[in-house]
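With this grant's support, we have settled on a layout for protein records. A representative record follows, to show the layout.
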Amino acid sequence: MPDNFGQAPERDLFIITSAIRTPWGRGDDERFEETLHTIQTINDKTDSDIWLCESSHEPIDQKHRAKLEELVNYISFHDEGKEIKSQNLGMNYVKSRTEATMMAEVLGYPMPYKRVFKISGRYFLNEHFKREDHDQPEKLVCREVMNSGWSEEQIGTTRMIMTRLYSFDPAIKSQLKDCCIS
């Protein structure tokens, strides 16, 4: 981690969780372009530092990596999801569990920022994003609880919290880390 990372208590931090190379869905180039769009909307709508956390199942292309390194303040590569991915579980479980494992690691670093946002790669900030909606001291702010689309027998609940975008006060990051690893 660079020495000057996180030395901006007057700024926000956006953590982008990403997997550009996956065995599912669209190709690497399309996922890369969507990730660039995510970064661009953060830069257009905020004055924040950006940390890209990349968890592709294989190393990303060097030209993609070089471009990403130009656009973000920090990029980290995570492979702790390899064991999860190798278990041949469903795609949604693998994506969720890999992100939770990666966030648990990331939340172990100091974060002296005003507010920390987590956005999933290839999602973007649109006209509904309002930074002031997230000004909640010592709170996590996310979209309202919604129906999951799964039965209680399948996942233990019929409700879910969408984690494509949420924010939190860095003062509660240890509690959030506990949620990621439990």
